[in-house]
Specification:
The protein is of the alpha+beta class. It has two domains: 72 residues, Arc Repressor Mutant, subunit A (Orthogonal Bundle); 163 residues, Beta-Lactamase (2-Layer Sandwich), CATH 3.30.450.40. It contains ten helices and eight strands. The strands form two sheets. It has a six-stranded antiparallel beta sheet with strand order 5-4-3-8-7-6, with helices on both faces. A two-stranded antiparallel sheet has the order 1-2. A hairpin with a 2-residue loop joins β7 and β8. α2 packs across α3 and α5 runs antiparallel to α10. It is elongated.
Length: 246
């Protein structure tokens, strides 16, 4: 369920992150396709709370430094340790592909840290990107850390939306994929959620949390390299000291 007011705030921040300069109420409304009255109410509320201001009188509105202050306070208390961030960065460099660490969020996996590939054609993910837990290698790497009772409870909530011809559409298929990954030593995907994307993922149980590391890139470059990429991830995990690769 999407809450429109919350979604509008997120869209507004993304708008200014792209725009990079103040905008009048009329500009915001026109660019985002919002009613003028709704735009006025939202900006007015954010101005009163100190989150938006006018850098120059009648020169348009812009997010205030309060966003940065709050973000820094949150980041300083982030439960994701620097060792994990450094691990993801190293894996991204070693493999040359986009690497990320994911955590369960409802029926999805959310990326907590991402190391973007420097390749011109790459998997373009970022912090906050979400992918379906059943239709991704990173998701199944997390599912594999759950008990069967826990997975069954989650399965009952899935709608099994079909994203491509390769999307797993049954519990049996997911369970088979998990079993095969256990024997193989890593989870893998091929265009299940995003077309022409291949990836591998490895479970990362860390400090009582169920995380997973994923590396993904275009099929043309990554499909046949999945075993080598998986080995690079496992090697990095062993050096971390957790021996998390299954």
């Amino acid at each position: 369920m999407k809450v429109r007011q919350a979604a509008n705030v997120v869209e507004l921040l993304e708008y200014f992150a792209t725009r990079g300069e103040p905008a009048t109420l009329a500009m915001i409304a026109d660019d985002l396709g919002w009613p003028r009255s709704s735009t006025f109410n939202l900006i007015g509320t954010l101005v009163e709370a100190g989150f938006f201001y006018e850098p120059h009188q009648r020169g348009g509105y812009y997010p205030s430094p309060r966003w940065l202050s709050l973000s820094q306070d949150i980041a300083e208390r982030d439960p994701l340790p620097d060792t994990i961030r450094q691990l993801v960065d190293r894996i991204g460099v070693d493999t040359g592909e986009t690497a990320a660490v994911g955590s369960v969020s409802g029926l999805s996996v959310i990326f907590l840290h991402v190391r973007q590939s420097r390749q011109p054609i790459r998997y373009n993910a970022e912090v906050g990107t979400t992918v379906p837990i059943h239709a991704s290698s990173v998701g199944r790497a997390i599912l594999s850390q759950m008990t069967r009772v826990e997975r069954d409870a989650l399965y009952r909530k899935l709608t099994f939306e079909k994203y491509s011809e390769a999307t797993p559409m049954s519990i049996q298929r997911i369970e088979t994929d998990i079993a095969e990954a256990e024997a193989r030593g890593y989870h893998q995907s091929h265009s299940e959620f995003i077309a022409d994307l291949a990836g591998i993922a490895v479970p990362l149980p860390y400090g009582g949390r169920r995380l997973s590391i994923v590396v993904a890139g275009p099929v043309s470059r990554c499909l046949t390299r999945r075993p080598q990429i998986a080995q690079a991830v496992r090697s990095a995990l062993l050096q971390l000291g957790g021996g998390a690769a299954r």
